[in-house]
Design goal:
By secondary structure, the chain is α/β, with parallel strands linked by helices. The protein has 13 helices and 13 strands.
Length: about 400
């Protein structure tokens, strides 16, 4: 590893209450993926630790309950009814309208007032990098950037230039860069020239799920839950399902989530002869998500690239035996998930069949998964994030 884990070797013991200006494009209920979940959980835990968090978002609210988190919203400055796209808007419809709103968001951040007592600016992904760089410079305080995924990942190696440039701006300007996995940190060093001494890893986490009582309910679903994009590999899930289906006629296959591949995947299921075995749920609520996990015999996330894979960690926290691709960052924090090459349909099918065929293996793996997934929670990730803030503050002070 060419970079240190968060807080390593800092020797920082200050308990000063920090004022954190945090910029994130999404915050529940306005979210479409792991970015919004992370922003919610980490800001809530930072506030619980006694720090002041001012969250800068384009959306109007109301927001998910997070005691102690203050919100400043771009929507107050926009004409009523201005559409604000989600963070994972497909690349093919990125365009002037979306980038116009992004530019307004950055200009608004750059000129924020009544924030002169802030200690650090923390930007999540590319959306606010230009404005946060300007704000941090104006206030003379450190900039921390969290990277949850890169434009190379989201487009499978065909980055959209305006977004790529905004990522580079943030990475060049940041006093510290937080990656959600080691493999993502290495990518930032290799493809973005991030200085290794500035890169830290703070993994995602999940909240513990109460174990389900054995009520005799049949777990008869093999589940894919996530955005329906090529990056996530849902087509591999369906191809593996077509191999498994004939041997397990009682098993259903569920695809939950929304995205640009939705119609293609429905057509693919039909062409594979499993159209009557696959349930497409589209976007699901939190209650529906929990119900799907309760019924799941196996969870599969066959991502082509996956900086972390928070959905897999959530499945494991619910005690569901899980199969992920070897490219998933979640594999760095858990050992009990099966890991398979993202392209190997037959191996995915073999692992699914193994878990369906052997209930004892499935129970053991699910129990171990629950333990590993909840070993370190969001409170610990928030403390690690504070370590990074204090490193950045100290490094800036030493340069003066």
């Amino acid at each position: 590893m060419r970079f240190a884990p968060s807080g390593a070797g800092t020797g920082l013991v200050s308990l000063k209450r920090l004022t954190i200006l945090m910029a994130g494009w999404e915050y529940p209920p306005f979210h479409t993926g792991g970015l919004g979940v992370h922003c919610y959980e980490i800001s809530r835990e930072l506030a619980r630790l006694g720090h002041r968090v001012v969250f800068l978002t384009p959306f109007p609210g109301p927001f998910a309950d997070a005691p102690g988190v203050e919100f400043r919203t771009l929507s107050e400055c926009l004409p009523p009814g201005t559409p604000i796209p989600g963070a994972y808007t497909p690349a093919e419809i990125y365009g002037p309208r979306f980038l116009d709103v992004v530019n307004q968001y950055n200009d608004w951040i750059a000129h924020l007032t009544d924030v002169e007592d802030a200690d650090v600016v923390h930007v999540h992904d590319w959306f606010g990098t230009v404005g946060c760089r300007a704000l941090a410079r104006r206030l003379g305080i450190p900039l921390v950037m969290s990277v949850h995924s890169t434009e190379y990942d989201r487009t499978l190696g065909h980055p959209y230039a305006p977004i790529l440039e905004r990522e580079r701006i943030g990475i060049r300007a940041a006093d510290r860069i937080i990656a959600v996995s080691r493999q993502l940190g290495e990518q930032l060093i290799t493809l973005y020239d991030a200085p290794p001494p500035r890169v830290r890893v703070v993994y995602n986490a999940v909240r513990p799920v109460a174990p389900e009582l054995d009520d005799g309910r049949l777990r008869d679903v093999v589940l894919y839950l996530g955005r329906l994009t090529r990056m996530k590999g849902p087509d591999t899930f369906l191809r593996a399902a077509a191999v498994v289906a004939p041997a397990f006629p009682e098993i259903r296959f569920a695809v939950a989530g929304e995205g640009p591949e939705y119609e293609h995947l429905i057509a693919l299921a039909a062409s594979l002869g499993i159209g009557d075995r696959v349930l497409f749920f589209g976007k699901v609520t939190e209650a529906e998500r929990a119900a799907l996990l309760r019924d799941a015999a196996v969870f599969v996330l066959p991502s082509v690239v996956e900086p972390f894979g928070i959905a897999a960690l959530e499945a494991m926290a619910a005690g569901v035996p899980t199969i992920v691709s070897k490219t998933s960052g979640v594999g760095e924090v858990v050992r009990s998930a099966f890991q398979v090459d993202f392209w190997d349909v037959d191996e995915f099918a073999s692992r699914i069949s193994e878990l369906l065929e052997y209930p004892h293996l499935s129970r053991e793996m699910g129990d171990q998964a629950r333990h590993e997934a909840t070993e370190a929670g969001w409170a610990e990730r928030a403390r690690q994030t504070v370590d990074v803030y204090r490193e950045a503050i100290r490094a800036r002070a030493l340069r003066r």
